[in-house]
Amino acid sequence: MKTAVIIGSTGLIGNLLLEKLVQSSDFHQIIAIMRSKKSAQNPVFSNPKVRSLYFDFQNWTELSLQVEGFSRNTPVTFFCCLGTTMAKAGSQEAFRKVDHNYIVEFAKMAQKCKAEQLLVVSALGADRNSEIFYNRTKGETENDVQGQFSGKLHLLRPSLLLGDRSEVRIGEKIAVLLSPVFSVFMQGPLAKYKPIEAVHVAQAMLEIATKKVNASVIVTNEEMEAIAKGS
Fold first, then answer.
1. Phi first, then psi: what are they for 4, rounded to 5°?
2. Terminal CA-CA length for the chain
3. How many domains in the chain?
4. Angle at the Cα of 229 (from 156 to 50), degrees rounded to 5?
5. What is the pLDDT of residues 94-110, one digit of tens each?
6. What angle do CA 10, 3, 53 make, to 5 degrees?
7. What are phi and psi of 117, to 5 degrees?
8. Cβ-contact 231, 203 below 8 angstroms
9. Which helix (H) or strand (E) element contains residue 117?
10. pTM for the structure as a whole
């Protein structure tokens, strides 16, 4: 049986993925890393398969020792669903700390724990050479994660996420309301920009992690939709 280690489990994709991991017979133990008990509002966190580790995002060495102790002698898969927004972070520096530094540290931990696989939620448009800060940060994160982890790696690049968030993001809310209109025109080369249900991203991650489908290092928006709908 396998152990899953997930960070970002209280977010939109992470919460959905955690529910699917609990239901999966492939994983007997799920280690969910989060900041505090207050963030674990979903009843799924009380499932006997879930072990919650509360972490202040400071001492990664100590966290790594805990994860190694709980997952010893089992095949391990790491899932990263971390992500914030510029509005929530408050500055480019704070945004980069979450969407780059923490994710790279998680990749280092996956390597140290000898994880078989690492799946990371990135974003459509990730490009380390981009002039756009968000896209450039995502691209640099992908590049640095690949430099830290030598196991099987999958970087998922979803477009606009559809789903019920615990927090309100005004810009995304407007985009989601308009998405049915614009999706009609997103055909051919524009298909990759179509919004995607967060639950489809979570399902694709599970299908890839349990090796039910073959996927490349970069998993596109269209590929995630196809994998989720084919499951």
1. -110, 135
2. 21
3. 1
4. 60
5. 999 999 999 999 999 99
6. 40
7. -140, 155
8. yes
9. strand 117-121
10. 0.89
Q: Is 117 exposed, middle or buried (0-12, 13-18, 19+ CB in 10 A)?
A: buried
- Bridge partners, 33 (sequence order): 7, 53
CATH code of the domain containing 90: 3.40.50.720
Q: CA-CA distances (angstroms) from residue 93 to 106, 164, 183? A: 18, 28, 33
Q: Give phi and psi for 194, each to the nearest 5.
A: -65, 140
Q: Give me the domain span that covers residue 126.
A: 2-230
DSSP per-residue string spanning 130-149: -SSHHHHHHHHHHHHHHHH-
Cα–Cα distance for residue pair 209/213, rounded to 1 Å: 9
pLDDT in tens, 175-186: 444 445 445 445
Q: Is the dihedral of CA 185, 190, 192, 198 positive or negative?
A: negative
